[in-house]
Amino acid sequence: MEAQIESGFARVEDGEWLFAAKQPSAVFGTLAERRPPAGEGSWWRRMFQPDRRRLMFATLSGRAWFGDRERPFLARLDLAERVTVATEKLLVAPLASRRAGALLRIVPFSTRGAICTTALETGWAVTATAGRVARAVVAEGETLGVKPEAVVAWTGKPPTGFCPRLRVRDLFLPRAPKCMRLNFHGPCVVWFEGC
Fold it and tell me: Around 183, how many Cα atoms within 13 Å sit in the side-chain half-sphere?
Protein backbone atom coordinates (compact mmCIF):
# COMPACT_ATOMS: atom_id res chain seq x y z
CA MET A 1 0.00 0.00 0.00
CA GLU A 2 2.23 2.78 -1.31
CA ALA A 3 1.45 5.89 -3.33
CA GLN A 4 3.37 6.50 -6.53
CA ILE A 5 3.79 10.15 -7.49
CA GLU A 6 3.90 10.69 -11.24
CA SER A 7 2.97 13.62 -13.52
CA GLY A 8 1.48 15.65 -10.66
CA PHE A 9 -0.75 12.81 -9.41
CA ALA A 10 -0.55 10.41 -6.48
CA ARG A 11 -1.67 6.97 -7.65
CA VAL A 12 -2.81 4.30 -5.18
CA GLU A 13 -4.19 0.80 -5.59
CA ASP A 14 -6.39 -1.60 -3.58
CA GLY A 15 -6.84 -0.63 0.07
CA GLU A 16 -8.56 1.66 2.53
CA TRP A 17 -7.79 5.33 2.04
CA LEU A 18 -8.21 8.70 3.67
CA PHE A 19 -8.31 11.56 1.17
CA ALA A 20 -9.38 15.15 0.56
CA ALA A 21 -12.93 16.04 -0.43
CA LYS A 22 -13.55 16.27 -4.20
CA GLN A 23 -11.02 13.50 -4.76
CA PRO A 24 -9.98 11.25 -6.47
CA SER A 25 -9.67 12.75 -9.94
CA ALA A 26 -10.10 9.35 -11.62
CA VAL A 27 -10.92 5.80 -10.52
CA PHE A 28 -10.33 2.55 -12.39
CA GLY A 29 -12.40 -0.06 -10.53
CA THR A 30 -14.75 0.58 -7.60
CA LEU A 31 -14.58 3.07 -4.74
CA ALA A 32 -16.94 2.39 -1.81
CA GLU A 33 -17.26 5.32 0.58
CA ARG A 34 -18.35 4.78 4.15
CA ARG A 35 -18.79 6.59 7.41
CA PRO A 36 -15.53 7.97 8.87
CA PRO A 37 -13.86 6.25 11.81
CA ALA A 38 -14.32 7.76 15.24
CA GLY A 39 -10.70 8.53 16.18
CA GLU A 40 -9.38 9.03 19.72
CA GLY A 41 -10.80 10.72 22.80
CA SER A 42 -14.19 10.81 24.50
CA TRP A 43 -17.37 10.11 22.54
CA TRP A 44 -18.21 13.85 22.63
CA ARG A 45 -14.86 14.84 21.12
CA ARG A 46 -15.07 12.09 18.47
CA MET A 47 -18.51 13.26 17.40
CA PHE A 48 -17.37 16.82 16.69
CA GLN A 49 -13.99 16.31 15.07
CA PRO A 50 -13.50 19.20 12.61
CA ASP A 51 -11.82 17.13 9.89
CA ARG A 52 -14.72 14.68 9.46
CA ARG A 53 -16.45 16.77 6.78
CA ARG A 54 -13.25 17.78 5.02
CA LEU A 55 -11.95 14.26 4.44
CA MET A 56 -13.38 11.20 2.71
CA PHE A 57 -12.95 7.59 3.80
CA ALA A 58 -13.25 4.75 1.29
CA THR A 59 -12.31 1.23 0.26
CA LEU A 60 -10.77 1.00 -3.21
CA SER A 61 -10.70 -2.03 -5.49
CA GLY A 62 -8.60 -1.03 -8.47
CA ARG A 63 -6.58 2.16 -8.98
CA ALA A 64 -7.23 5.82 -8.21
CA TRP A 65 -5.42 9.03 -9.14
CA PHE A 66 -5.36 12.00 -6.75
CA GLY A 67 -4.41 15.48 -7.91
CA ASP A 68 -5.44 19.09 -7.28
CA ARG A 69 -5.03 21.75 -9.99
CA GLU A 70 -5.04 24.57 -7.43
CA ARG A 71 -2.31 22.83 -5.38
CA PRO A 72 -0.02 21.23 -7.97
CA PHE A 73 3.02 20.51 -5.77
CA LEU A 74 2.92 17.05 -4.17
CA ALA A 75 5.13 16.07 -1.26
CA ARG A 76 5.38 12.68 0.40
CA LEU A 77 5.77 12.68 4.18
CA ASP A 78 7.21 9.49 5.66
CA LEU A 79 5.76 9.12 9.15
CA ALA A 80 8.05 7.49 11.70
CA GLU A 81 6.09 9.08 14.56
CA ARG A 82 2.84 11.00 15.02
CA VAL A 83 2.57 13.88 12.54
CA THR A 84 -0.07 16.61 12.55
CA VAL A 85 -1.06 17.72 9.04
CA ALA A 86 -3.08 20.77 7.96
CA THR A 87 -6.23 18.99 6.72
CA GLU A 88 -6.74 21.23 3.69
CA LYS A 89 -3.27 20.24 2.43
CA LEU A 90 -3.66 16.48 2.95
CA LEU A 91 -4.23 14.73 -0.39
CA VAL A 92 -4.13 10.99 0.42
CA ALA A 93 -2.97 8.67 3.22
CA PRO A 94 -3.76 5.14 4.45
CA LEU A 95 -6.97 5.17 6.48
CA ALA A 96 -5.38 3.21 9.34
CA SER A 97 -2.90 6.05 10.00
CA ARG A 98 -5.58 8.59 11.05
CA ARG A 99 -5.83 9.13 14.81
CA ALA A 100 -7.81 12.33 15.41
CA GLY A 101 -8.80 15.74 14.12
CA ALA A 102 -8.49 19.06 15.96
CA LEU A 103 -8.53 22.82 15.51
CA LEU A 104 -5.31 24.76 15.98
CA ARG A 105 -6.62 28.09 17.26
CA ILE A 106 -4.76 31.14 16.02
CA VAL A 107 -6.93 33.59 18.00
CA PRO A 108 -7.48 32.52 21.65
CA PHE A 109 -11.11 31.63 22.51
CA SER A 110 -12.18 31.96 18.86
CA THR A 111 -12.42 29.66 15.84
CA ARG A 112 -11.76 32.55 13.44
CA GLY A 113 -8.64 31.77 11.41
CA ALA A 114 -8.23 28.36 13.11
CA ILE A 115 -6.38 25.66 11.18
CA CYS A 116 -8.15 22.31 10.90
CA THR A 117 -5.59 19.53 11.52
CA THR A 118 -5.47 15.75 11.27
CA ALA A 119 -3.13 13.61 13.38
CA LEU A 120 -1.55 10.68 11.51
CA GLU A 121 0.63 7.86 12.83
CA THR A 122 3.12 5.64 11.01
CA GLY A 123 3.32 5.00 7.29
CA TRP A 124 3.15 7.89 4.85
CA ALA A 125 0.97 10.74 3.59
CA VAL A 126 0.93 12.83 0.42
CA THR A 127 0.23 16.55 0.66
CA ALA A 128 -0.84 18.92 -2.12
CA THR A 129 0.31 22.53 -1.79
CA ALA A 130 0.34 25.72 -3.88
CA GLY A 131 4.12 26.08 -3.42
CA ARG A 132 7.09 23.80 -2.90
CA VAL A 133 7.45 22.18 0.52
CA ALA A 134 10.55 22.57 2.71
CA ARG A 135 11.44 20.42 5.73
CA ALA A 136 13.12 21.96 8.79
CA VAL A 137 14.53 20.02 11.73
CA VAL A 138 14.30 22.02 14.96
CA ALA A 139 16.76 20.91 17.65
CA GLU A 140 16.16 20.93 21.41
CA GLY A 141 15.97 24.51 22.69
CA GLU A 142 15.52 26.06 19.23
CA THR A 143 12.41 27.82 17.91
CA LEU A 144 11.16 28.11 14.33
CA GLY A 145 8.58 30.78 13.43
CA VAL A 146 6.28 30.00 10.48
CA LYS A 147 3.36 31.99 9.02
CA PRO A 148 0.06 30.15 9.66
CA GLU A 149 -0.81 29.91 5.95
CA ALA A 150 2.56 28.26 5.21
CA VAL A 151 2.25 25.40 7.72
CA VAL A 152 1.87 21.95 6.12
CA ALA A 153 2.73 19.50 8.93
CA TRP A 154 4.75 19.06 12.10
CA THR A 155 5.86 16.52 14.70
CA GLY A 156 5.99 17.11 18.42
CA LYS A 157 4.08 19.66 20.49
CA PRO A 158 1.56 22.06 18.95
CA PRO A 159 2.98 25.49 18.09
CA THR A 160 2.44 28.62 20.13
CA GLY A 161 1.41 31.92 18.56
CA PHE A 162 3.65 34.96 18.47
CA CYS A 163 2.63 38.46 17.41
CA PRO A 164 5.29 41.19 17.76
CA ARG A 165 2.69 43.96 17.72
CA LEU A 166 -0.83 43.50 19.11
CA ARG A 167 -3.25 46.44 19.12
CA VAL A 168 -5.84 47.01 21.87
CA ARG A 169 -8.55 46.61 19.22
CA ASP A 170 -7.31 43.03 18.56
CA LEU A 171 -8.10 42.10 22.17
CA PHE A 172 -11.74 43.17 21.93
CA LEU A 173 -12.46 42.08 18.34
CA PRO A 174 -11.16 38.51 18.05
CA ARG A 175 -9.27 38.33 14.78
CA ALA A 176 -5.88 37.18 13.66
CA PRO A 177 -3.30 39.96 13.57
CA LYS A 178 -1.55 40.61 10.24
CA CYS A 179 1.94 39.83 11.53
CA MET A 180 1.18 36.49 13.21
CA ARG A 181 3.72 33.64 13.38
CA LEU A 182 3.44 30.16 14.84
CA ASN A 183 6.46 29.18 16.93
CA PHE A 184 7.51 25.54 16.87
CA HIS A 185 9.73 24.58 19.80
CA GLY A 186 12.23 21.74 19.36
CA PRO A 187 12.78 18.93 19.16
CA CYS A 188 10.45 18.64 16.18
CA VAL A 189 10.26 18.52 12.40
CA VAL A 190 8.22 21.12 10.50
CA TRP A 191 7.11 21.05 6.86
CA PHE A 192 6.10 24.38 5.34
CA GLU A 193 5.36 25.83 1.91
CA GLY A 194 6.03 29.15 0.23
CA CYS A 195 3.39 31.82 0.81
Answer: 10
- At 112, which amino acid appears? R
CB-based burial, 75-100: b 16+ in 10 Å, e otherwise: bebebeeebbbbbbbbbbbbbbbbbb
Lateral strand order in the sheet of 115-120 = 98-104, 115-120, 83-86, 151-155, 188-193, 133-138
For residue 129, give the nearest of 151, 114, 102 by alpha carbon.
151
Report the 10 Å Cβ neighbour count for 53: 12
Per residue in 5-60, pLDDT tens?
Answer: 988 899 999 999 999 888 899 999 999 887 665 555 555 555 566 777 788 888 99
3-state secondary structure of 44: helix
- In terms of C-beta density within 10 A (0-12 exposed, 13-18 middle, 19 or more buried), how is residue 133 classed? buried
**What are the phi and psi torsion angles at 81 (to 5°)?**
-145, -175
Summarised one tens digit per residue, pLDDT across range 95-153 is 888 888 888 887 666 677 788 899 999 889 999 999 999 999 999 999 999 998 999 99
Q: Is the separation of the CB atoms in 192 and 137 below 8 Å?
A: no
